[in-house]
Amino acid sequence: MAATCRLAGALPSSLRSRVTTVSTQKYDLSLAVLADPTYPEYLERIEWVGEGFDPEAFAIEEANARLAARFASSYASNQAPVPSRP
8-26 pLDDT, tens per residue? Predict the structure, then answer.
């Protein structure tokens, strides 16, 4: 699974592929570290992602719903008021 950074779309095309490539490489490294308890950074990564992390269990719909719920009030407060009809 290739990870894609949504914010990369806001970058100039000259940087977009580099950001996506670096993000994917870092994710792949994290998966390698989590798969090997003898890796020096293993405990740090487990603390970061939590025990029981399953990269195959990611559900984009659930993630989007949780993010939308989390940031709904922030998003709403940044919107211009809708004028009422006379």
Answer: 455 566 666 666 677 788 8
Domain boundaries, the chain: 6-77
DSSP 54-86: -GGG--HHHHHHHHHHHHHHHHHHTSPPPPPP-
Burial bucket for residue 49 (CB in 10 Å: 0-12, 13-18, 19+):
middle
CA distance 1 to 17: 16
What percent of the chain is modeled with pLDDT above 70? 59
- Do 43 and 24 form a contact (C-beta atoms < 8 A)? no
